[in-house]
C-alpha cells in the first residue's frame, strides 16, 4: 500500500492554534478542540466535570435534548467530549464529526453550523446569575462519582491506576484523570462556573480540522464564531516530571482482593519520551517485548509457561512509563514475576532474534498505517507530538522505525529501570523480590 504524505499545517490565530489536514479521502469533516492544562490536585476534579457540563446545554440550546436535536439536524453529526491524560497534562477534548456537505444533494451549510455549534459548546454554556444550572451540575457530579467508584469494577484498569499511583506518589501523574471523589461534594454551580470562566480564558486551545474544505473558509468560520482570547497561558513543552528515573530499590505493593483472576502490573521508568531522538527505538522495544500477541511477554508467559490469561505491555511515551500487565492465578505470582524479569534482562543483553526485530517493525508500521484511516487517530497522534515539542511526519517515523537495529533496542533496554511491582489478588505469602 502506497502511503500519502500526512502533515498538518499549523496556523496561529487570535487565541488559538489551528492544525489542518486537508484530504478528499474522508467523506466527513472532523473538528476537534483540545484545551490543555497542567495536572494539579486543585483542578483535576473540576476540569473532569466540564465535559458533561458543557454538553448539558448552551445559551441557545439550553438542554442536552436540544443539543442532540441539533446534532440530528446536522445529518447525524457525532459529538465527542471527554478528558485525557497526556503526561503531566490534563486535556479536555471536544469535537464534532459531520457529513461533508459537498456529498449531499442540497449542500446545506453543515461546516458552518458545525463550527458554530462547537464554539457554542465551549464558550456559551447555559448559565444564569453567575452559576451553572443546578440540575446539570448535580447530574455531572453524579456521573463523575459513578465513574470514579466504578474504576474498581474494571480490575485491569484499576490495577494500572494503582500501580501508577504507587510509582508517582507526590507527583501530578499519580492523579486519576477523572479526579478525586472527595472533591465532588464541595463543587456547586457557582464555584464551577467561576472556575470555568478562568479555565476557558487561560489555557491554550489547539483546534484541529481534518477533511475537505477550502482553508480560507475554515479560517473565516473560526474568526467568525470563536472569540478572541487574550492572555492565554503558554504551557511548557513536555512538562513531564522526571524527579525519579532510577532507584535501586523496587517498590512492592500487594492489594488483597478475593478474585478468580489476580492482576500483576510491573511498572518501569525511562528517561526517554515521545520527544526523544530515539523514540522510534523505544516503540520497537515496546513492540518486541509486549505490544503484540507474538511478543516476548505473551509468548513466554502465556504460550510456553501457560501461566497467564493475558499478558501485554503499554507505553505512556510522554511520561516515559512502561508497564507490563498479566492476568494470572495468585499461586503463579512468583513464577510470572521471574519470567517477566527474565524477558527484561533478555532485552538488556540483546537477546533479540532477527525475525523478532523484523516482525515487530512490520507490525508497528502497519499499526501506524491503519491510523491514517481514522481522522481522530490522526488528530490524537499529531497532538501527542505538539505536546512533546517534537513533530515527525508519518514518513519520517516510518523511515526511523525501519532503521532501528538490535543495538538501538538494546540501548533503550539499558535505559529502562524496574520501579514497581503491583499485585492485586489473593497473596499467598510469595516473595515479590
Write the CATH architecture name of the largest domain. 2-Layer Sandwich
At CATH level 3, the topology of the largest domain is: Cytochrome Bc1 Complex, Chain A, domain 1
Number of strands: 13
- What's the overall average pLDDT, rounded? 93
What is the structural class?
Answer: alpha+beta
Amount of beta strand: 15-25%
Largest sheet: 6 strands, mixed
Runs with pLDDT <50, length 5+?
429-433
Relative helix content? 40-55%
Structure notes:
The protein has 433 residues and is α+β, with helices and mostly antiparallel strands. The chain has two domains: 9-225, Metalloenzyme, LuxS/M16 peptidase-like (Cytochrome Bc1 Complex, Chain A, domain 1, 2-Layer Sandwich), CATH 3.30.830; 251-425, Cytochrome Bc1 Complex, Chain A, domain 1, CATH 3.30.830.10. 41% of the residues lie in helices and 22% in strands. The chain contains 14 helices and 13 strands. The strands form three sheets. The chain has a six-stranded mixed sheet, sandwiched between helices. Helix 9 (296-304) runs antiparallel to helix 10 (333-349) and helix 10 (333-349) packs across helix 14. Residues 429-433 have low confidence and may be disordered.
Amino acid at each position: 500500500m502506497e502511503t500519502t504524505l500526512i502533515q498538518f499545517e499549523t496556523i496561529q490565530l487570535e487565541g488559538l492554534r489551528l492544525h489542518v489536514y486537508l484530504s478528499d479521502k474522508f467523506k466527513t469533516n472532523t473538528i476537534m478542540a483540545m484545551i490543555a492544562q497542567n495536572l494539579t490536585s486543585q483542578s483535576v476534579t473540576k476540569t473532569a466535570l466540564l465535559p458533561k457540563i458543557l454538553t448539558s446545554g448552551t445559551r441557545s440550546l439550553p438542554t442536552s435534548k436540544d443539543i442532540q436535536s441539533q446534532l440530528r439536524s446536522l445529518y447525524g453529526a457525532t459529538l465527542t467530549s471527554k478528558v485525557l491524560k497526556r503526561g503531566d497534562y490534563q486535556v479536555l477534548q471536544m469535537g464534532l464529526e459531520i457529513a461533508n456537505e459537498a456529498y449531499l444533494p442540497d449542500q446545506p451549510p453543515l461546516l458552518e453550523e458545525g463550527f458554530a455549534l462547537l464554539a457554542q459548546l465551549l464558550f456559551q454554556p447555559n448559565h444564569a446569575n453567575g452559576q451553572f444550572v443546578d440540575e446539570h451540575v448535580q447530574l455531572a457530579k453524579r456521573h463523575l462519582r459513578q465513574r470514579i467508584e466504578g474504576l474498581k469494577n474494571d480490575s485491569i484498569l484499576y490495577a494500572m491506576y494503582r500501580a501508577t499511583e504507587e510509582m508517582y506518589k507526590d507527583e501530578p501523574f499519580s492523579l486519576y484523570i477523572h479526579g478525586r471523589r472527595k472533591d465532588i461534594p464541595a463543587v456547586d454551580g457557582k464555584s464551577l462556573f467561576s472556575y470555568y470562566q478562568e479555565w476557558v480564558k487561560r489555557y491554550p486551545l489547539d483546534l484541529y480540522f481534518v477533511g475537505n474544505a477550502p482553508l480560507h473558509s475554515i479560517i473565516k468560520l473560526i474568526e467568525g464564531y470563536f472569540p478572541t482570547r487574550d492572555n492565554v497561558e503558554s504551557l511548557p513543552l513536555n512538562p513531564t516530571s522526571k524527579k525519579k528515573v532510577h532507584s535501586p530499590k523496587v517498590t512492592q505493593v500487594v492489594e488483597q482482593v478475593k478474585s478468580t483472576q489476580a492482576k500483576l502490573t510491573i511498572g518501569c521508568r525511562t528517561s526517554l519520551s515521545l520527544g526523544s531522538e530515539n523514540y522510534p527505538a523505544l516503540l520497537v522495544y515496546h513492540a518486541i517485548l509486549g505490544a503484540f500477541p507474538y511478543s516476548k511477554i505473551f509468548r513466554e508467559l502465556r504460550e510456553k509457561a501457560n501461566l497467564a490469561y493475558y499478558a501485554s505491555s503499554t507505553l505512556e511515551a510522554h511520561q516515559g512509563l512502561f508497564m507490563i500487565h498479566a492476568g494470572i492465578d495468585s499461586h503463579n505470582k512468583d513464577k510470572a514475576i521471574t519470567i517477566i524479569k527474565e524477558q527484561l534482562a533478555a532485552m538488556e543483553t540483546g537477546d533479540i532474534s532477527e525475525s523478532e526485530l523484523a516482525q515487530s517493525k512490520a507490525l508497528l508500521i502497519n499499526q501506524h498505517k491503519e491510523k491514517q484511516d481514522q481522522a481522530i487517530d490522526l488528530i490524537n497522534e499529531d497532538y501527542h507530538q505538539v505536546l512533546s515539542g517534537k513533530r515527525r511526519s508519518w514518513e519520517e517515523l516510518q523511515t526511523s522505525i525501519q532503521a532501528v537495529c538490535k543495538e538501538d533496542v538494546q540501548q533503550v533496554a539499558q535505559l529502562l529501570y524496574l520501579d514497581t511491582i503491583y499485585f492485586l489478588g489473593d497473596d499467598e505469602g510469595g516473595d515479590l523480590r
